[in-house]
Structure formats: C-alpha cells, structure tokens
C-alpha cells in the first residue's frame, strides 16, 4: 500500500507512506517534522494528513494519491489558511485585555501614594510652623491646640 500527499505544480512530497513506513527522506524540507498520516482510519477508506504549525505558505492545492495492489485513487483538495489571530488561546486574550487595566490601576495607586506622602510632609511642616508661631497656645501634654480668645472693647 502507498499513500502520498503532494503539492502541485511540481509534485513536492508533503508526506509519503509506503510499505508500512513513513518515507521521511523523500519529504519536501518545508514539511519535515510537521506532518503525520493518521493511519487508524485507512481501513475505513479515510486517508487523513495532519499538518502542524500551519503557515500561510501551506495554503493552496494538495493531491492525495492512494494505491493498494491494482486499486488506485487520486483526489485533489484545497487548503485555506485563516488569520492566526483567531487561534490564540482565549486565556491569552483575557490576559491581554486585563493586564493593561491592572497596570493602569497600579500606576494610579502609586501616584496616589506619592502624592499622599508629599502632602503629609507638607502638613507636618505646616503643623511645625504653626507650633513655632503659636507655641504658647500648644498643649504639649495632650497634643491639642488650645484657642485663646481675647475680648476687645467695642467702641
């Protein structure tokens, strides 16, 4: 039995199976290590070729040739290659969508913390300035500000 998959126009060997063995030596270099003939269904009349790591250059016509003793058959088919964007794992798409939002939230949080730290420093400096200016009003035991009211005569 012989099963061959070929690419026109020069009949480049995509995959060849002869005498119970894959004939890797006759395979075109661009298909080495990327094809597999699924032999389980040959008895049912199905000759399936699996191509891994499909490329845009794989698009186009293929011919499958089958011969067993005096019986032979040949079928031509067309392979269409779609945009590989749709082959991306959905989990990867989620990461691509969520990661920028997460990074933006982290950046906003860091900016907020920096501003908060800066404002606390300014507030401390202002409190110290007030303490120096109004030192007599400051109650050091209770850490409170005492307000002193003076009455002025109304004229």
Automatic annotation (TrEMBL):
The keyword Nucleotide-binding does not apply. GO terms for biological process: regulation of cytokine production; T cell receptor signaling pathway. InterPro entries: Ig-like_dom_sf, Ig-like_fold, IgSF_BTN/MOG. The chain crosses the membrane at residues 87-115. Gene3D superfamilies: Immunoglobulins. It comes from the Eukaryota. GO terms for molecular function: signaling receptor binding. GO terms for cellular component: external side of plasma membrane. Its main location: membrane. It is found in: Membrane. Keywords: Disulfide bond, Immunoglobulin domain, Membrane, Transmembrane, Transmembrane helix. This is Myelin oligodendrocyte glycoprotein.
């Amino acid at each position: 039995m012989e099963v061959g998959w070929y690419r026109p126009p020069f009949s480049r060997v995509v995959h060849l199976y002869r005498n119970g063995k894959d004939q890797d030596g006759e395979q075109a270099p661009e298909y080495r290590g990327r094809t597999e003939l699924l032999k389980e269904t040959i008895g049912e009349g199905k000759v399936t070729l699996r191509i891994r790591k499909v490329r845009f250059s794989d698009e186009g016509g293929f011919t499958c040739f089958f011969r067993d003793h005096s019986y032979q058959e040949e079928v031509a088919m067309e392979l269409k290659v779609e945009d590989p964007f749709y082959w991306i794992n959905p989990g990867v798409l989620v990461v691509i969508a969520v990661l920028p939002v997460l990074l933006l939230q982290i950046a906003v949080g860091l900016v907020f913390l920096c501003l908060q730290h800066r404002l606390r420093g300014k507030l401390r400096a202002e409190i110290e300035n007030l303490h120096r200016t109004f030192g007599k009003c400051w109650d050091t035991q209770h850490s409170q500000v005492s307000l002193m009211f003076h009455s002025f005569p109304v004229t």
